[in-house]
Please model this.
Amino acid sequence: MHYFRKILKYALPYKRYAWLNIISNVFYALFGTLGMISLFPMLRVLFDTTKQLNTKPEYTGLMNIKDYAEDYLNYFVTQKANAGADDVLLFMIVLVISMFFLKNLFGYLAMFFITFLRNGVLKDLRNDLYKKTIDLPVSFYSEKRKGDTIARITNDVQEIQHSFLSILELFVREPLTILFAIVTMLLISVELTIFVFIFIPVSGLIISLIGKSLKRKSERVQREQGHVISVLEETLGGLKIVKGFNAENIFFERFKESTSRLFHFANKLLNRQNLASPTSEVLGIIVIAALMWYGGRLVLVEGSLDAELFIVYLALAYQILTPAKAISKASYSVKKGNAAAERVLEILETESAIKDKPGAVDKSDFNENVAIDNISFKYKDEWVLQNFSLNVPKGSTVALVGQSGSGKSTIANLVTRFYDVDKGAIKIDGVDIRNMTQYSLRGLLGLVTQDSILFNDTVKGNLLVAREDASDEELKEALKVANAWEFVSELPDGMDTNIGDSGNKLSGGQKQRLSIARAVLKNPPIMILDEATSALDTESERLVQVALENMMRNRTSIVIAHRLSTIQNADNIVVLSKGEIVEQGKHRELLEKEGVYQSLVEMQSLV
Model:
């Protein structure tokens, strides 16, 4: 119930629906009991055992409420019977129907109001999860499977709705139904009710023993559901590789293994869960059977209970079984929901490793330089950068080259603050980027990555990610600078053409030029190009290179280079090896040194 209380805070905005649900459930329980009681005068009329009473009884206090109610009922039926047998029978039928109609009307209203609460909590929980998902740093997802996160936002939240929130409607309705029934049963026969209460705790103990392992079994199912979605997400993301390497069987076997585990875990969970209903029903029938034996003795042997009252008593006792069974099922649901809530809250309560400091400054301009001051960084145990320093003056282009694993892309990740440095500092105009708000820092930066990250939207929609308020004319101008307007203008619907999932309707060069256009539209003072041409053919590279030159004009640029054409005009080329600077200077200066840079150029392998 610890996690349940945390989830309940999401119900606060919808408390008026909760109150309406409670009020409706009170009337549902009340009319449910009155419906059973209304059978009593009906049975007396049918069995013709109504005591004739022509004088209206007097109320003599709460202690004699049972006798007063019975006498008043006899008086009322006698008066109706004097008007004609058909009238009294019709009245009794209308009374019974009215009670059950009102019970079901308020039952529907209770469900109607709780629906808004349940779906409202579901919506807000998903919104908070999504917001947290995009707020968490990039490093969080380098350690977690994306599919598992998707499963938590979809399956686990749905489980919370089915498990936790479904029992909200039981909080008032079922306990009140039981309470009203028990009060009435006590009024009918205290002795018989005490006899019933001997059996109920025994039944409850047996049911609780069955549900103990449900939370553990549910956790395994939810974890495996996350793994299934992970395999699916990875397969769809790498479908070209899967097909290109004829690896369909490898991935199918991997998927089958996961679904087989899910099949095994889910069977165990559902079989244990399904045991709840028949167990509670059998135990309920045993209680009713014992009740019939003991009550039958009171009616037939001792004569201390009227037969009509005993029938009503049995109906009330059976009426307790349904809510009692619902409550026992709810205890199983709580255990399942607890496991789901734990997984959901794990994300919601994860502290972001990268967050704004109190009093972080909003920096909106760039005037001097980007200074990387003696930084060191490691992803896990091994240092990727050590004591690394670099100055990037305003308006200059600095290129980073080196073999794979030399730390080039890490510098881009650190400048954009996707990760934080372990030692040293990165400063913009002398201000440590950790003392700036992340929003203002990234407002100063434009990013073009090796993988063109586009969304399943129109060309226009992808560009507006950079600036929501941009006009069509500004979009067109950005596309022209990026050398992309030529192909965009020929698309079926121009800028309103949907480019498919990850932009797969476009070629690699076209996708990259759209990425550049997006960065151009943002118009930041500092541009970071992370191997922006490495994945392109020669023709596409030429077009993209022109676009990059257009974009970098009069801007401060940090270029992580793969090909010579990207960096030969840079103001400063920095050659990295194992996280340290081994050479730096202009293109010709470095060639004259005949060192590491020259060997990279000769191999045409600036990777």
